[in-house]
């Protein structure tokens, strides 16, 4: 096996350990910005729309970010032979969120981005360089009735910048 085994992976079967884990220290492009995490939910699109009004008022660029990772399966890992790509899915999600948020062509201060990893970890890492993180209150999680999703709650508690949680409109 190549790579370094992290302490949390030490007891995992080798087949489940990611040989090329995402780089959480990756610095985002450009100057500090408002970062909006999107997952394709109505709540995340509402967050993009809200942040699109804030960005020009604060003279900040807007980064719309979708986080992706390879799914794991119980029978031995991810099969790239499937006719589906999580990266392509993430690209579609950011593109659709942008198209749903702007009546005309997206402005030049908007950047569409994807990053590999777990959403909470990536967004908290992004918060080190962001002026603000904007998230929808509920994503595609399975706990109906919660006022705040797990990613939003974790980011609100652990981010290194202000976090704005937008409730669907």
TrEMBL record:
Protein name: Universal stress protein
Annotated Pfam families: Usp
Residues annotated as domain UspA: 34-167
Region annotation (Disordered) ranges: 1-30
Species whose genome carries this gene: Agromyces lapidis
Domain of life where this protein originates: Bacteria
Similarity comment text for this entry: Belongs to the universal stress protein A family.
